[in-house]
Amino acid sequence: MKAGLGKRWKSAETGKAQKQAKRGNRQSAETGKARKQEKCQNSKSVETAGAGKQGETMGEIKVGRMVLGMCQTNCYFLYRDGEKQTIVVDPADKGINIYNALEKNGFLVEGILLTHGHFDHIWGLEELKAASNVTAQTAGREPVKVYVGEAERLLLNSPELNVSERAGRACGVTADVYVEDGDEITLAGMTCQVIATPGHTAGGCCYYFKEGGFLLSGDTLFAESVGRTDFPTGSMSELVRSIKEKLFLLPDDTKVYPGHGESTTIGHEKEYNPFCG
Q: Model-level pTM greater than 0.85?
């Protein structure tokens, strides 16, 4: 969730799309249709979102996206070109629909990465993991594991701290692997580095795929914005420090895939992000 939104749940991009939808032209009508699909009200909408975003190439790694739930959260799935093993990042909502969309396209979930533990990034976790593990067991594969920052352990399992209670659907989940700054994770033939970025939450982290030249930034860094820090364990000073002292050390051409909204680059944010000047 972005900074500067007060108590609003939706991202700035969502609000902009809603205004466009009211104008009545063809483009806004298409935007409205997409928004309904992205809210993940049924499996067809997830399949459409997943298929529509599938195939942005980053070297040999491809990044797919589904936009899900009340906060229009980006749920990413990563895979190597020509391969079916995939990593899912932040299963925002309706986990069985995420699973069905991936399964329909032949994908097998090998692991799940969480950038942090807020409700709009975990509501689909348990369903996705359960369905994926049934498939894994049938195929004689290792169980699917969930990865998250070590300092996020308490928040992840607390409906009060992860804000799910306030959002109207209390939940608490656990991970299988709690990672720390500098750890490397290899899944589905892809390796990423964990970058601990406290600020949005105490245990928030980003995942840097050096080979592909991209970063999954969660709610730490957005296109010309940053994550809000008025929820439990948040700190604006820590957030800005994490961005400037860690993320801004990455190459300028690093593609940034945030938890909400469209992608950006490290170079663009160093020059234009008003929160990190």
A: no
